[in-house]
Write a structure and sequence with these properties.
137 residues; mainly alpha; globular
């Protein structure tokens, strides 16, 4: 049960973040995109923000709509969190504000949150230990 609640909470978080990237926060999130990402991807910063928002929404939906694939989706969510980490570092290093990250302290705390998100994605989508499964049956 805790993993199910965790998975749903993660889905809500991803959906909210994704919708923010696609709407109210879209302009502000562009500053988190490092210049090297545009050169590497051949996309502009707005396209990268929109793409990351779309991925967040799709991962959110997948977390709740595809329970048989939850472990694979968990790894995809964790990989996504790792992939966007350079943007968090870029924002912290440049000291530029983005939605909800308008101080150096918040930007630094966001860096520390990233490993927690990775662990959350993996734990919330993994199977409980056999001992715990026996208690639930």
């Amino acid at each position: 049960m805790p993993r199910t609640v965790s998975r749903w909470a993660l889905a809500v978080l991803l959906a909210a973040a994704g919708l923010g990237h696609l709407s109210w926060g879209r302009r502000g999130f562009r500053i988190t995109v490092p210049d090297w990402a545009t050169r590497l991807s051949h996309l502009d910063k707005d396209a990268i923000v929109v793409a990351s928002g779309a991925v967040e929404v799709m991962l959110s939906v997948a977390l709740v709509a595809l329970p048989k694939e939850r472990k694979r989706i968990g790894w995809a969510v964790a990989a996504f969190f790792v992939a966007v980490f350079p943007g968090n570092v870029h924002q912290w290093r440049t000291g530029r504000s983005a939605p909800l990250l308008d101080t150096d302290r918040r930007r630094f705390a966001r860096l520390l949150l990233q490993p927690v998100l990775v662990v959350w994605a993996l734990w919330g989508t993994s199977s409980p230990p056999i001992r715990a499964r026996r208690r639930c049956s």
